[in-house]
């Protein structure tokens, strides 16, 4: 009973699992494929740090060197010695009476000068040059040219016509020409101009002439003098120097006899051991099919089975690693501190030095100058002159002056005209008179040539007359009239001038004592005393060097589930896709590389089909030329190149199958040893695809 119940449960589970073995509501002529969505996994590389990066410290001790230094312990003595001033006696002049000036008056002789005075200014006179005329022949048209029409009559002939015996025609009637007499005014003498001279205007004016020029008279104002007391230095002021000696003392100087560096102590890095668990493959599940029941009576191999969706546990791996607890460091300790330092500090020594606390100096004592008072005559106001103006003497004379210059006035001469008669002819014309057509059953008169006219030119009638024409217009010629002058006498008075006479100064010679060189001091220095001391100098303090130790890593490949698998429903596909469909890719000879044109064909043909979730098999074939091994390898590489391109475009690899058949599936007779055309070989070089069941 239990066995029967178990079989029934398995059978019910199998029916529910395969309830979609065949599509429901299938249509005749349609093809379907059952698509099983597989699990999609991808590999990811995970890098784990198994040993951390840390630093290792190397210490170097301090470096010293001993040097000698020369120091000043006694600056030496300083003493000032006075260098006395130098004097000498010099002669000098004292002015007892200053230089002055005296003015003397001198008078020049009077003279008489002749002067030319213009009594009548220069002017000009205009003389008229009349215009020039000449007679010229002028052609005048007394009768204009015209035309006369001559009528040429029409030509007719008789024709046999069923209805019309005489067509409608035209007759020209001549309209005779008309003649008119027209009066026309002709200029026989052109308008011109005549110049008339307008004479200049003159008048008499009074002109003032200077017969004796204005002058000046000079009057002398004498200089003024007075006596003044003048202080004269007979011995100049000077100075005397007095020496103040220097003051000495001693001072204690410190110097660094020894420099101290530092000591470095290294504390190495500390590590701990640790581990890390890495998930290599995530937890998932997959379908498993049971064995067929032994008592199953169906011939279908998929019947009497059940599907179980079993869980697949995750996979882990434990990695040991070292963890940095504390990085390396150093502790710096000075080699000299307050405990082992002397009274002056670490490495400090002293020495005594004699120095000048107050340098030697001098005190200046002033010696006053010796003076003497002398009398001196001084000019208070210098001599000068005063000028007296003498007016000029003038005389009035008559002078003829042109007020308005000569000019010309233009007089217009009107033109002379003459009236003549001229005959104007209106040419002949014609007027058309319509002649109606005459009809008769048999005879008809037809105009073969229509009437016309010819024009006969009638020349114009002209007449030659005389006409007076001005060839040169009237002008004027200027005639210069010279000026009229007269000579008058003019008296030039005598001019008074002054001469300045220099009066030299009066001097007295005296003697005075002059300091030629001021007193000074000369510094006498004693020799300085030096001493040599030794010093220990720090060249380079203790220093540390850090060495970086790189971290250690380990790379592990981990599988990551992209999407879960399972059973999906039936999908309808085109029936032609179930069979091999050509993919028209033109491969280069011996190459498995996709060209840009081949990629465009794949994008247009395959990608839309693969987006529906169906599986596709890519198959590639070659022709029989070449070895079977090379052809097999080439076809497999070409099929795989298409698959790789589709995966790169985002297609699930579980949907793709690549198969290469080489020359095993030829479509024609072109096997090894058979002579074929290139076109027959090309039909064997093909790449195809077909939709397959994913079950």
Helix percentage range: under 10%
Number of strands: 52
> How many DSSP helices?
6
How large a portion of the residues is in β-strands, by DSSP E? over 45%
Description:
The protein has 695 residues and is mainly beta. The chain is built from six helices and 52 strands. The strands form 25 sheets. Strands 49-52-50-51 form a four-stranded mixed beta sheet. β50 (615-621), α5 (628-648) and β51 (656-662) form a beta-alpha-beta unit. It starts with a helix and ends with a strand. The model is unreliable at 1-6 and 9-20 (pLDDT under 50).
SSE topology:
Blueprint: H1 2-17, E1 31-37, E2 40-51, E3 54-60, E4 63-74, E5 78-83, E6 86-97, E7 100-107, E8 111-120, E9 123-129, E10 132-143, E11 146-152, E12 155-160, E13 164-166, E14 169-175, E15 178-189, E16 192-198, E17 201-212, E18 215-221, E19 224-235, E20 238-244, E21 247-256, E22 262-267, E23 270-281, E24 284-289, E25 307-312, E26 315-326, E27 329-334, E28 348-358, E29 361-367, E30 370-381, E31 384-390, E32 393-404, E33 407-413, E34 416-426, E35 429-435, E36 438-439, E37 443-449, E38 452-458, E39 461-472, E40 475-481, E41 484-492, E42 496-503, E43 506-517, E44 520-525, E45 529-540, E46 543-549, E47 552-563, E48 566-573, H2 575-578, E49 581-582, H3 596-605, H4 607-610, E50 615-621, H5 628-648, E51 656-662, H6 678-684, E52 686-692
Parallel strand pairs: 50-51
Antiparallel strand pairs: 1-48, 2-47, 3-46, 4-45, 5-44, 6-43, 7-42, 8-41, 9-40, 10-39, 11-38, 12-37, 13-36, 14-35, 15-34, 16-33, 17-32, 18-31, 19-30, 20-29, 21-28, 22-27, 23-26, 24-25, 49-52, 50-52
